[in-house]
Amino acid sequence: MAQEIEFAFSVPGGLHARPASLLRSAVSRFGSAAMFVNRRSGRTANARSTLALVSTLTRHGDPCALLLDGADEVAAAEAMRGFLRDDLPLSGESLPAAPRPLQTSTALPRALSAAAVPVLRGTRASGGIARGRVVIGEGLAPLADGHVERAGDAAEEIARLDRAFATTIAALQVRSAGAANETERAILGAHLSILEDPELRSRIEDEVRSNGVSAPQAVRATIGHFVGILRASGSDSLEERALDLRDLAGQLVRAVSGDSSEASTDLTGAAVLVAEDLAPSGFLSLDRQHLRGIALGGGGRTSHTVILSRAAGIPCVTGLGEAAAAIPSESETIVDGERGLVVVNPPPAVLRFYEAEMEKLATIRSRLETFRTAPGRTADGRPVEVGANVASLEDVRLAFASGAEGIGLFRTEFLFMSRQEPPSEDEQLHVYSEAARMAGGRPVIVRTLDAGGDKPIPYLGIPREKNPFLGYRAVRMYGEHREIVATQLRAILRASAFGKLKVMVPMVATVEEMRGVRALVRQLSEELAAEGVLFDPGLEIGMMVEIPSAAFLLGALSKEADFFSIGSNDLAQYFFAADRDNERVSRLYSPLHPAFLRLLKQIVDEAHLAGGWIGLCGEMGRDPLRAPLLAGLGLDEISLAAPRIPAVKSALARAGSGECRALLDEALAKKSAPEVEALVRAFSESKRDRAIVADGTVRLRATSRSREEAIRELVNLLHASGRITDADRFEEAVWRREEAASTAIGLGVAIPHAKSAEVRVTSIALLRFEPPFPWVPGDEETVRMAILIAVAEDAPEDAHLRLIASLSRRLMDDGYRETLLSAADEEGVVRLIRDAAS
Hints:
- The protein is about 45% helix and about 15% strand.
- By secondary structure, it is an alpha/beta fold.
- The strands form 4 sheets. Strands 5-12-11-7-8-9-10-6 form an 8-stranded mixed sheet. Strands 13-14-15-16-17-18-19-20 form an 8-stranded parallel beta barrel, surrounded by 6 helices. Strands 21, 22, 23, 24, 25 and 26 form a 6-stranded mixed sheet that branches.
- α13 runs parallel beside α27 and α23 packs across α25.
- The N and C termini lie far apart (about 75 Å).
């Protein structure tokens, strides 16, 4: 009987080439026929065809189904449920996210509007600001160019296609092998999946045979068909994927025509590329040593070209329309990826504005970098190691690049899947030893084979079961498959000579299971020692705590296990007796339920009472809002998806260990998961720095030389410190007040101010000027110091008036004022301002 899996499509960008290629690879491991159904669009597709899947026009949230029919349909359904639940939603997680749409008004920053300089408006596709000289790039050739090539006989044209596909696929494979980052590799992999799609090849060959056209015309016509489907989808993200198909069409046509040259644009010096459009292959062919920014007439925010731009840190503005064609070659140009602006031939005042903006962005990046490279710890210094969950060597590389302090979970089952026989000892040794080398002395916890359940491996011969999650899986099948497990453990032991590896056993329910694994490791260690093979004799052997029975045996298990790691996904599922894939009962599954938190606290307390180390490696650890709650439990480590590591470290650093424990106690007193969720959100908001002035909001040597520059510099201090959300909108509010009446109060001081929804917390910023300058042009009196007051919208109505009055009174005091003007360090100024504002 055919198996049917119903689900809501979980990838934010819809079913485009990248998730489609992953879905295709997942179903291709099984022999059963696989049909994908989109219930909204009514379209169906062979799940083994990337292009057919893309053509279903599936959007985020669409109701879908996967139908599996064949001899291994039950095993396939079990595996695909896990893929759709755990893997597919993460298909874009390692890719750089699109910038959030701007909330700024149509008004330009004062420095741009006052300069009366031509400013081109587009779409912010990749953030950052770049400056360089314009190089005009060539756009993509149209699919229908009017040129008709004389066709040979069908066999000849198909032979040309064979050579073109082979050449293009080989070139993509070479490029993928040398990819600069995981983003490039993922996008090139999606392109390869399209070229290897049998449906694409079959349609092109049918076009040759049925219509008697040449190979290039067949390529253009066939890919044009799919481009038309995407363009008619009504989804911006799917429409933008048409660029990938046009890109591949161009590569195939060049290969069919025997053109081995690669379309590229020569760049020299600091360059800004301007073009109507730019294909992913065009971007990858550019010399990024010289590329500073990109400005495109077409395009949007989610095309693979702009995703590549974000991964490379190249500012990009798209959607300029016909204005892009009017930008002169060699003109000095600013690409403002923060606002979606392009400024051609900027005058000195605008250049100064953008120099200050770039300095602000560098400050913000530096603060984020601090969290990436800093150790995980609470505000009072209690260590909480932040590690990464990985499944491959590429994941390991990304993890340490993202700031992982170790690998908290290396899922090894992926080494055993999608193949006809288990990996050899040497093959596994290579993977584990490379992971150890990459770690450079940091811990790598290798989970032993976790087969069965939602990860069936055909050559293991695990029988079909009514409830595989409660059945014959993980450590429970080690006895029958002792040789495979022993091979893996030997590889891990040998790899331990290269770094700090640890072994972790999954699905342990009894003490006897851990004793059995330890005995096998002891035997293998003796054999390796007798063979003279190097390994770490102190290799630690730990276990997953994911079965409730283990939670009540930790005292006894601690005599067999050197450490523990909580698998919150399965533990919660078993604890609530609720299948998280079953929509009818999934509401019961919540790791934030007070009852589950009590279980976690008992587990952590028992582990520490026995003198053990305990971490958590389930999905519960990936949300930064939950980090203080997990620290309150007393966990030694949290392991999660690599891209989220800096955010989790930042959340930990804002809360003291005592506060984390108090948060946990309050959560345990709640009655439901929604109450706990509201509690952790409120706690996160309460940790925002509420001090009215800080070191980062004071600058004793300002660069401003006018009121316009001074207001912007003050606003940037607050923006860089995270105290306002949108610098441009807040600057508008300051200027509305400033234009009503000058805020220069005499005595060489100005106090600009505004109350705005953009203010997160009422704040003060201060600048000192040397030399002083007139606040209003034409005034005889000059200003030596400016103090900006930013008041939150929810503050009392007269808050800014009281602050101004308080500051003005103190500033009238000659001694106080001169102390402010002569203070040698920012810390002293901060104390003086706090005193005056209190």
